[in-house]
Structure formats: C-alpha cells, structure tokens
Amino acid sequence: MRDYIAIDIGASSGRLIHGKVESGKLTINEIHRFKNSFSFVNGHERWGLDFLIQQIFLGLEKAKRQGIEECFIGIDTWAIDYVLLDKIGERLADSISYRDKRTQNKIEEFCQSISKEEIYKRTGIQFLEFNTLYQLFTEERELLEKADKLLLIPDYIAYVLSGKMVLEETNASTTQLLNIHERRLDSHLLEKVGVEENLFPPLVSAGELLGEVLDKWQEEYDLPKAKVITVATHDTASAVVGVPAIFPEKNWAYLSSGTWSLIGIETNTPIVTELGYDYNFTNEWGAYGTYRVLKNIMGLWIVQEIQRLYENGKYTFAQMATFAKETPFFTSIIDVNDPIFTNPENTIETIQEQCRKTGQVVPKTIGELTNCVYSSLVKCYQKELGHIEEVLGKKINALYIVGGGSNVRLLNQLIADTLDLSVYAGPSEATAIGNLAVQMIATGEIKDKDEARKLIAHSQELQVFEPNYVRK
Ligand code: LRH
C-alpha cells in the first residue's frame, strides 16, 4: 500500500491531501489547508509564492508527523501565470497574477500583427485577455532579457522541490503558445511575442516521474522521503480526471465549480472549428491525450468577493446560500463574463451599477446579491451548454459538478431545473483526487483513467439532482 499526497493550490486556497487505495476504495484525508491570494506589490497584483512553498513544507512536515515516512507527491495549481528565472535558476520577480490590469486590451494590440483567426487555428485556445501569450507580450523587456527560463506555477513549485524543470502540457496549453496540430510550442507565435523556444523547459505529458525532493529540503525540514510525479498540473485538468463519470454511455459534460466555473466536455480530438472560434471555446490539453473543450465562466469568484466585502465578511458561504433562497430567482441578471468583474474595486457596487444601468431590480441584501450571482451563473451555464451542444451536434444529458461549488445544493438543484438535465454533484475535492489518480496510474497502482473514475465513483459519495420541471 503506497502513500500519495496531492498538493492542490487554487486562486483562493491550497491544500495537501493524502490519498491511498485501501480495500478497493480510494480514501482521502486532508493534511493541511491554507489561504491563497494576490496582493499589490511593486506596481502589480502578485502571488506570494514563498508563502505557498512554506505552506507546502508545513504540510509535508504534518504528513510525517502523521506517520507518512515515504510518499509520492504531485502538484497542480491555477493556470496561465509564470515565473522567470535567471541563469542560476533564481526567480527574477514575484509572479504577476492573471487578474492584474497589465493585459487589459492587449489582445487587440497583439493582433495587429497576426489575426485572431490565425491564432485560434494554430492553438485552438480561447481568447482570454490574461493568457500567457498576452502577459509575455506586455512583460518588461529588460526582465525578459535577463530570463533564462520561464516556468508555469506548478512546474516552478516542482522545480523548487526537485531541482528539475519541465513544461507540463495540460497547463502549457493554457498559455495559448502551443500548436495544437504539431503538439509543440508554436514557433511563429513565439517569434511574434519575441521569445526564444529555449526559454521553456522540455514539454512533458502528465504522469511522469520527475525526481526526489532535494536533500537540502530533507535536511532543513522533517519531511517524508518523497518523489515528485508530474501530474496534470493544471488544476482544471486534474479536476476533469477526477470526474466520476459513472454513466459513460450518457453524453456527459462537467462543470468544475470553484473560483472559476469551467463548463465543457472531454474529447479525444480537438474541435477547432469556425463555430468553436465564434463561441470562443477552448481546447485545452487533458491528461492521456484528451482535450477539454470548455468555456471559462467567471464563477464563484464573484460570490467570494461579495462574502469578503459585505459587512466585513460577516456571513459564511452557507449562510449566503440560505439567504439567497429566500428571494425569487432570476430577478436580476448580470453578465458574469463581463471583464468588469475580473478584478473590480468593489464587486458589490459593480453588480448594483450593472443592474441599475440595465433597468433591473438592484440587489441590496446579502441574499439578494448572492441570488443575483447564482441566477446569472445558471443562465450563463445554460447558454454555454447550449453552445456546446451546437458545436458537438448532440444533446448533453448529464452534468457532473465537481469542486467546492458542488457543495451548494441550492445551486445544483437550480442547475438541474433550469438546464433540464440530471446533475451528479461531487466530489468537492475532485482536483486533488484527479491529481492523486494520475500519481497512482504512474506507479501502476491503478490501470488507467477509466479505472480511476470507476474507483472514484465507488469511493466518493455523489449527490443526484433531477430536474423538477420548474423550467425557466
Ligand atoms: C482555475 C483555472 C482555470 C484558468 C484560470 C486562470 O483555477 O486554472 O482553468 O482558466 O484558473
């Protein structure tokens, strides 16, 4: 029986989850949890990477105290962002968050020298203003000149732990720098953005052994003896591996619900079509040669911001859901994907301003505000799932909701009712579970992704929500 630890860090929190297979079940246990956020330093919104690394060591020390002497570890985080390293492998600056304003309107500027259609044809990736492509386009040239290597966040953490540098492909695809047909870095786009291919370490697939945690860390901290496996390092890719698709015969979609809502399907071939371009669907690379054809929706970030701002964080998310239920749904609808919600000064005022401008009832109480966001998210899911069906040419009849948002029963039922399909909710730790599954497949403990999904479905409790035909 082997021990595995998933290090799973999202934009608002991180955790170390211990997993193992025991009596035919995948058991998980949270070892350590910590907050994550960006803050305004040296002119930009930046992540505190040193804090995150400290938390990882704290968590690994806790694991050792719990009796884990030897283990495998895998790291996944949010996508897109990166660090630049100098020739001796030292970080040149703290990583800038994708929510920083530096890339505002940069797609248009970049596209003066290459068309959007051409970028999409090459990459199959959705246009998000903060994609690594546009971040690199706006990056300080002086810093880029000093840079010897660029590492995406989970690859950087893996490098700190193991001393080995890679560019893991599930996350690398979100940069919008990979050519989806050649399955390598796109030399034309690299040239346009003014960086050399050797700025990047070698592109690798999820599921390879990277190396042992360096001796220097073993000497400084009391850690288990650990080997790092390169998992599906993009958190959304790990979450999709963790989807307990128990009805593979159904046309199923997933909703990875956390800071972001990622709604889409898993395919074996990318869908890079005109319609996909028109709807701005992405084809992010998944583990084991799959693709995530999906759409980014602003997600629970807006709810998290309301929670933080409303009377100084007085209400919990559970209370917010309870209050939301007391007011009628679909009273006021905002466009959750409007970039004004990416990082506004004050989310509550921005929501109210949008409702005022569009002549709708202005939500004021915590319940009304939460209700407005839930209603708007559900409307957006409905629209995007419709587009997915159109792109695919078939009807979706099951939706697996995974991630923290899958705990919100009210929202799950509202989705089942409004989208008129069966909703299977859970696990809320699908990302960590997908991370663990890739490690277990790499060591041969689980055969493959299908077997992993069966095991997950068999081990985790799923909630089923059927539509009760209150159709809107
Ligand atoms: C979710 C996520 C998403 C990306 C965004 C930057 O955490 O990784 O898939 O688009 O963060």
UniProtKB/TrEMBL annotation:
SUPFAM superfamilies per UniProt: Actin-like ATPase domain
Domain Carbohydrate kinase FGGY C-terminal: 253-442
Domain Carbohydrate kinase FGGY N-terminal: 4-242
Any one GO molecular-function label of the UniProt entry: rhamnulokinase activity
InterPro entries: ATPase_NBD (IPR043129), FGGY_C (IPR018485), FGGY_Carb_Kinase (IPR050406), FGGY_N (IPR018484), Rhamnulokinase (IPR013449)
EC number: 2.7.1.5
Keyword Amino-acid biosynthesis among record annotations: no
Keywords in alphabetical order: ATP-binding, Kinase, Nucleotide-binding, Rhamnose metabolism, Transferase
GO biological process, alphabetically ordered: rhamnose catabolic process
Database matches in CDD domains: ASKHA_NBD_FGGY_RhaB-like
Superkingdom classification of source: Bacteria
Signal peptide from the UniProt entry: none
Similarity comment text for this entry: Belongs to the FGGY kinase family.
Cited NCBIfam families: rhamnulo_kin (TIGR02627)
Protein name: Rhamnulokinase
Species for this entry: Pilibacter termitis
